[in-house]
């Protein structure tokens, strides 16, 4: 075996380096396309097609060379056509079109046999897709994806640096003709320097640590008011008003609207669906329901952390349900960005706490709460001691006039006066009687109410509610579309046309609106409530998630005393009128525990620990770190002081047999370590050079150290050997021969490399101490 064979290493050829560079670029493309699956935009077809195409090119690298030339020539026109089709499919969603355009450019650049300058373009395109997806989704998985991107990019840049002399070269089909994955992988594995790879991993870990420290230490600012941020919203979801049209349909959107941490020990029963109230729509005008007037009671921007109800006074007593106890504990809500400015709640509560400074508005007469505008990021807030019931307490202004036709005279307002104001602005709370202005529409409603009551003109409220829901379910099927084209007189109110058209389909907004108008026409105050119904329980992280598809509208009817009763007129909805705990006959809470639940649980951890990390949390964390550092320094100081006292005590106190034995043992250990230092070092060199700690074809620590000493020893030997006395020349020759044997000779277990290195050190020192004129 030649003497240099011991130091041989497997090195990749320049062709193999170019292949590795191109394959790493495709890994970046696959990683970028992976992040697109978190976006709720466009269709899944083109994203899957792009990913499969890139994966095919990665598995069969020669495949892109078979793409016809005309495809590349017409790629710009094909991309423009696909972009236009995406605009049409998404109703001219600019963000969706932008993502598709960048994805097309990335796929085209990824499949191309690139030069080095084109690799830089590919890296930037992939980085843009990953960052855009991470910002829009705020997913915990984004942290993993950006770390993987950094690792692959660093490897790709390292290979690109090795190929600077071939910057203008691009691969061809001939370069892949003899390519075989097994052989290529084995070559890369043998060429990888594990020690350098470990050092790179340590440096990368340090980079992540520094980035984490910067994230923790960076000052927090609220940018929501500084610029508008593009939102991604589905068709289905919460809306702040209800407008009825001649023809309309709704597409499902199963993205999450908000997540909820319930108090410890609380769990919705198996047959109960929670109703998350967000807004009350009391005024009916121009074929739709809306809120009668803006929410009053703005909180100052500096108001922070704790929001209390005002103290009761003679104008508005604090509403409550005396016969329903609140759920003791804290509810934690995480409202997704751009869902709504209204906050979902289940009922009345004691305190509301935001996770950051927030301008806050409330309307206690309707029990609805909101911020200034939808937050572009996740909004976290906590609610203490919330009531979970199927009724809401009436406010002071609602209880005093009693809001019944028999008691309207208490407020010096007759039913005829209310009738005269139809179609005009009704002062709150008389908006709860608002009906269509057209007398013909009123006549249709009167006829339907008479049909519902039958031979009971004075039907009680509970019976009328049940009879009305039965009437709606019998005459109108449930569907996600409504079509009144050519049905009924165009002059009629749109909702009245729907009611007067047998078997016309509709969704919750139609049922809730029609029910409300019929109850009002019968003389009972009623209003529409919009929010979400239902939840999915995540058994991995123990929280509830509410999806956009759960958006719902229902009604609330005043009982004539002190509360608003929730009524869901949808077929199978909740018709409870007792004011007891919420229950539903329309199905129960579903539970998820699979892989999707695990991934969504990671997102919840991200929200709990990262998204709501604000200035106060930052200050608290800094204070905690400061206190912990002081405590740690104090403990370390106390430990050293105690150890020093023990050592001083051994010498200051009289020597006993025990102390004499301890001192003797310590001294013997030091002397033994000094005496056997060479043997210990030899053992370490042999252990660190064993096969299971080093990679094949890699020099052992003994040979590496011998090579370092030879580089220092050989020049001095050549310069001074002729002038040395015979005895010294013999010592130098012997040490040089031992170093050469350790470096290039066969492994010798009986060798003493540590002693050889020490002798080389001593000989070099003797030369340095000799006079220069010797």
Describe this structure in words.
Strand 18 and strand 19 form a beta hairpin. It is elongated and about 135 Å long. The protein is built from 22 helices and 20 strands. The N terminus is likely disordered. The chain is an alpha+beta fold and about 775 residues long.
Quickly give the structural class.
Answer: alpha+beta
Distance between the ends: 43 Å
Relative helix content: 40-55%
- Strand order in the largest sheet: 7-9-12-8-3-17-16-20
Hey, roughly how much beta strand do the residues contain?
5-15%
Short description:
The radius of gyration is 39 Å and the shape is elongated.
Structural descriptors:
single chain; alpha+beta; eight-stranded mixed β-sheet; five-stranded antiparallel β-sheet; 22 helices; disordered N terminus
Please describe the topology of this protein.
Blueprint: H1 14-35, H2 44-59, H3 69-73, H4 75-89, H5 94-111, H6 116-137, H7 141-162, H8 181-191, H9 194-217, E1 242-243, E2 247-249, E3 256-261, E4 275-281, E5 283-284, E6 288-290, E7 307-308, E8 327-335, E9 351-354, E10 360-363, E11 368-371, E12 379-386, E13 391-393, H10 396-399, H11 415-420, H12 439-453, H13 461-475, E14 481-483, H14 494-499, H15 508-521, E15 526-533, E16 536-538, E17 543-547, E18 551-558, E19 563-567, E20 590-592, H16 595-611, H17 615-652, H18 657-675, H19 677-688, H20 701-720, H21 726-744, H22 753-769
Parallel strand pairs: 16-20
Antiparallel strand pairs: 1-6, 2-14, 3-8, 3-17, 4-15, 5-6, 7-9, 8-12, 9-12, 10-11, 13-19, 15-18, 16-17, 18-19
């Amino acid at each position: 075996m030649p003497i240099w064979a011991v130091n041989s290493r497997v090195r990749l050829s320049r062709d193999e380096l170019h292949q590795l560079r191109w394959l790493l670029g495709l890994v970046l493309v696959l990683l970028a396309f992976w992040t697109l699956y978190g976006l709720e935009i466009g269709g899944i077809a083109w994203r899957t097609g792009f990913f499969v195409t890139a994966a095919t090119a990665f598995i069969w690298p020669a495949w892109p060379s078979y793409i016809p030339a005309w495809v590349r020539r017409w790629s710009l026109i094909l991309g423009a056509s696909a972009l236009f089709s995406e605009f049409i499919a998404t109703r001219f969603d600019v963000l969706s079109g932008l993502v598709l355009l960048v994805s097309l450019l990335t796929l085209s650049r990824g499949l191309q046999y690139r030069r080095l300058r084109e690799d830089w373009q590919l890296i930037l395109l992939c980085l843009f897709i990953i960052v855009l997806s991470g910002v829009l989704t705020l997913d915990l998985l984004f942290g993993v994806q950006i770390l993987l991107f950094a690792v692959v990019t660093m490897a790709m840049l390292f290979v690109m640096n090795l190929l600077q002399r071939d910057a203008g070269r691009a691969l061809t089909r001939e370069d892949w003709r003899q390519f075989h994955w097994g052989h290529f992988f084995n070559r890369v594995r043998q060429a990888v320097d594990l020690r350098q790879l470990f050092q790179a991993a340590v440096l990368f870990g340090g980079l992540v640590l520094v980035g984490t420290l910067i994230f923790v230490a960076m000052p927090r600012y609220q940018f929501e008011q500084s610029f508008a941020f593009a939102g991604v919203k589905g068709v289905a979801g919460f809306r702040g008003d209800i407008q009825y049209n001649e023809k309309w349909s709704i597409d499902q959107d199963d993205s999450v609207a908000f997540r909820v941490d319930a108090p410890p020990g609380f769990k919705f029963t198996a047959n109960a669906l929670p109703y998350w109230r967000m807004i009350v729509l009391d005024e009916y005008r121009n074929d739709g329901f809306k809120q009668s007037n803006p929410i009053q009671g703005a909180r100052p921007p500096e108001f922070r952390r704790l929001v209390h109800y005002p103290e009761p006074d003679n104008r508005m007593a604090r509403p409550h349900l005396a016969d329903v106890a609140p759920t003791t504990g804290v509810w934690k809500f995480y409202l997704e960005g751009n869902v709504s400015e209204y906050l979902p709640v289940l009922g009345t509560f004691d305190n509301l706490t935001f996770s950051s400074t927030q301008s806050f508005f409330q309307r206690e007469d309707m029990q609805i709460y909101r911020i200034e505008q939808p937050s572009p990021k996740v909004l976290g807030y906590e609610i203490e001691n919330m009531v979970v019931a199927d009724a809401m307490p009436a406010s002071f202004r609602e209880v005093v006039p009693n809001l019944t036709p028999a008691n309207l005279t208490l407020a010096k307002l007759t039913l005829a006066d209310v009738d005269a104001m139809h179609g005009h602005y009704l002062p709150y709370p008389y908006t709860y009687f608002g009906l269509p202005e057209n007398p013909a529409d009123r006549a249709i409603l009167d006829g339907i109410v008479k049909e519902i009551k039958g031979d009971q003109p004075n039907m009680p409220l509970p019976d009328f509610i049940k009879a009305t829901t039965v009437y709606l379910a019998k005459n109108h099927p449930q569907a996600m579309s409504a079509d009144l084209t050519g049905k009924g007189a165009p002059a009629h109110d749109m909702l009245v046309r729907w009611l007067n058209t047998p078997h016309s389909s509709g969704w919750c907004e139609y049922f809730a609106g029609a029910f409300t108008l019929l109850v009002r026409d019968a003389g009972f105050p009623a209003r529409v409530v919009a929010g979400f119904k239902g939840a999915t329980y995540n058994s991995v992280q123990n929280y509830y998630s509410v999806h956009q598809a759960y958006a719902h509208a229902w009604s609330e009817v005043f009982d004539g005393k002190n509360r608003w009763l929730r009524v869901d007129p949808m077929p199978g909805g909740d018709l409870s009128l007792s004011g007891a705990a919420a229950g539903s006959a329309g199905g129960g809470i579903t539970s998820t525990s699979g892989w999707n639940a695990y991934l969504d649980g990671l997102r919840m951890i991200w929200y709990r620990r990262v998204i709501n990390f604000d200035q106060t949390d930052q200050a608290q964390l800094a204070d905690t770190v400061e206190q912990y550092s002081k405590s740690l320094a104090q403990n370390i100081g106390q430990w050293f002081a105690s150890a020093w006292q023990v050592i001083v005590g051994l010498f200051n106190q009289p020597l006993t047999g025990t102390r004499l034995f301890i001192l003797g043992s310590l001294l013997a250990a030091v002397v033994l370590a000094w005496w056997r230092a060479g043997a210990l070092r030899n053992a370490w060199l042999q252990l660190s050079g064993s096969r299971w700690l080093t990679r094949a074809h890699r020099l052992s620590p003994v040979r590496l150290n011998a090579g370092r000493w030879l580089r220092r020893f050989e020049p001095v030997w050549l310069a001074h050997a002729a002038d040395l006395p015979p005895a010294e020349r013999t010592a130098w020759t012997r040490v040089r021969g031992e170093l050469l044997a350790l470096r290039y000779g066969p492994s010798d277990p009986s060798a003493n490399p540590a002693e050889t290195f020490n002798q080389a050190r001593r000989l070099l020192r003797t030369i340095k101490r000799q006079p220069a004129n010797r």
